Amino acid sequence: MSLLATSPVLRRERRPLSFWLLGAVFAAFVLFLYGPMFAIFVLSFQGPEGGLTFPMRGWSLHWFAQLWEGIGVIDIGAALRRSLLLGTVVMGLTVLFSLLAGLAYRKKLPGGTLLFYVVVASLIMPSIIVSLGVGLMFRLLDGGVKLWLEAHWPEALDTFTTTLGMFSSGLGAQLTWTLPFGLLIMFAVFNRFNPAYEEAARDLGATRWQTLRHVVLPLIGPSLVGIGMFGFTLSWDEIARSSQVMGDVNTLPLELQGLTTTVTTPVIYALGTVTTLVSFAVMGLTMVLMAVWRRRQGRR
């Protein structure tokens, strides 16, 4: 046996079989995660004569131009703006309610265990069932509103259509999806939070509001930014819970789902590329906000 074969350095470089097996599993995971997205990204740059599959027939921005001009009667720009607006509202409410719930659960909350299971149950219920239930509830509400208007305000009955809408039933359905995640994140944050900081602030004469504003919120700020980003991205690509509750308008994912059955050109890939870039832009903006936040904290 040569000296090179018995060298301790060479023996340390040998990898066991389990290393390669786990590496293969991880490589398959990365392939299934990013492979489809990369294929759609590439195909969105098909030439004007290109189709929905490989091989590529030239490279161009033709399908992005088609997307900009519009896809039939569907106003993609309006759907994009609706999704951005709804996602922003969902993000804000998710952060607010998650923070308030996290603060409430720091102390003994009467009925807190039951309330926790009621909130988290939304995660294990099939999304389409939640959507159907919310839609049915608002249609029953429509019947009640019409009966009330008929009895007390007949003139308004002609103008009333439905209570179903993006910021009523649609917003509620999406919050059933984002709030449980926000609450679980806040639990993890406050379980690691050291109450000694609050006690020190109160010993120095700070009120509860001052302690919350100047001590607690700066410390948990990055987590709140993460909850906000989580809420936005969950709302941004939500389909199942939104399918029965949006009323007369559709969000971008619902329009995209409808296009998959009618559009047979790479313009749908161009739309997928644009929506993916928006998601990355939101993630990049969040990281910038967190970096600015940490820099400001470091200066204090």
What does this protein look like?
- The radius of gyration is 26 Å and the shape is globular.
- Helix 5 packs across helix 8 and helix 8 crosses helix 10.
- It is built from 12 helices and no strands.
- The model has no long low-confidence stretch (mean pLDDT 86).
- The longest helix is centred in the C-terminal third of the chain and has 33 residues.
- With 300 residues, it is an all-alpha fold.
Q: Unreliable runs, pLDDT <50, ≥5 residues?
A: none
Structural class: mainly alpha
The tally of beta strands, per DSSP, is 0
**If helices are DSSP runs of H or I spanning 4 or more residues, what is the number of helices?**
12
Alpha carbon gyration radius: 26 Å
Order of helices and strands: HHHHHHHHHHHH
Distance between the termini: 63 Å
Q: Based on the structure, what is the oligomeric state of the protein chains?
A: single chain
| Estimated share of beta-strand residues | under 5%
Average predicted confidence as pLDDT: 86
Helix content: over 70%
Largest sheet: none
Shape: globular
